[in-house]
Amino acid sequence: MSNLIDKEQVPIRRETKRRTLVKSVLWRFIGVVWTWIGAYFIMLLVPPTYNTAALIATFIVIYHHSTRMIMYYFYERIWNSIPWGKKGDSVPMKKRDILFWIMGIVLSILFVFLLILYVTPLIKGK
Known about the structure:
This protein has 126 residues and is mostly helical. The chain is built from 3 helices and no strands. It has 2 domains: 15-91, no CATH class; 93-126.
């Protein structure tokens, strides 16, 4: 008896390029925002007597890698439950979902733009 699974018994479910692209861009955006928020709070919370570049960088790296691993697990679990963009599941995107993604992209760009507007004067002020 063979331990191999017959390919006809298990449907192959691959992602479309669009789904992979959306997942990648969304994950990158989440990562940028999450790291920025964490770095900002770390810089606020570290007392001035210990405020060295090496210590701040160490805290940011610890924060970033310890939280992002957990986030990625749940991120993939959520995406695994979304049927859109899986080959073999010919489920087209609904108009509501298209509108949701467009609004999300516009709000994301707006958020990054406003973040830049907020941070730039702080940098120039130093």
